[in-house]
Specification:
196 residues, alpha+beta, Helix Hairpins, SH3 type barrels, 2 domains, elongated
Length: 196
């Protein structure tokens, strides 16, 4: 049982440093474990929801990608990205709240965030533009589009950037607020034939 006594000694030292008793440390460690188990379950639920969305829009024929499938894949990718970020942020904040008072930290972060936001106006414009790009379904993953003089296939789409891959294989990463006009060639080709 030398491992058990070593763990017990470490907990006692930690209790002295944080000015808590051993029982309090044990209780908080159990709470940290519970927070991260719930975070893991929330991440799994987010991934499952994204897979369900992709499964619901799957037409069954891998050689034909419909507009509905493209939109579903785009929404699923956004759900994974935003969901993972939110779950991890909440889990970290809840964990910190068990050991230190985060109210003053959040207030200070709010003031610093306000100062940073004046310098990050383009980031805010990117996110707002990206939100409306997705809301209005202007293009989706796999569409061939032209933005700011660059033509390529939409490889990745977030609230902040659009990633295009052109015919030469060059990868173009463009912030959403940098372009004013989007030409979606996939929609134009659908006008000639009926797209599902």
């Amino acid at each position: 049982m030398p491992l058990l006594s070593t763990v017990q000694e470490a907990l006692e030292r930690l209790a002295e440093i944080l000015r808590l008793d051993g029982a309090e440390i044990s209780r908080r460690l159990v709470q940290v474990g519970a927070i991260w188990v719930l975070a893991y379950l929330a991440l799994r639920l987010t991934r499952l929801a994204a897979q369900r969305i992709e499964g619901m829009v799957d037409g069954g024929d891998p050689s034909i990608v419909t507009l509905r499938e493209k939109r579903g894949k785009t929404i699923a990718q956004l759900l994974r990205t935003v969901g993972t970020t939110l779950v991890l942020l909440v889990a970290v904040l809840l964990t910190l709240n068990l050991f230190i008072e985060i109210g003053p930290l959040l207030a200070g972060a709010g003031i610093i965030g306000l100062a940073v936001s004046f310098g990050a106006q383009s980031l805010v414009k990117d996110v707002i533009t990206g939100f409306f790009l997705l809301l209005e379904n202007q293009f989706a993953l796999g569409d061939v589009i032209e933005i700011a003089g660059k033509t390529g296939v939409v490889e990745h789409l977030t609230l902040r950037v659009v990633v295009l891959r052109d015919l030469e294989g060059t990868r173009h990463i463009m912030p959403n607020s940098e372009f004013k006009t989007v030409s979606n060639e996939a929609v134009a080709s659908c006008a000639a034939v009926v797209c599902r």
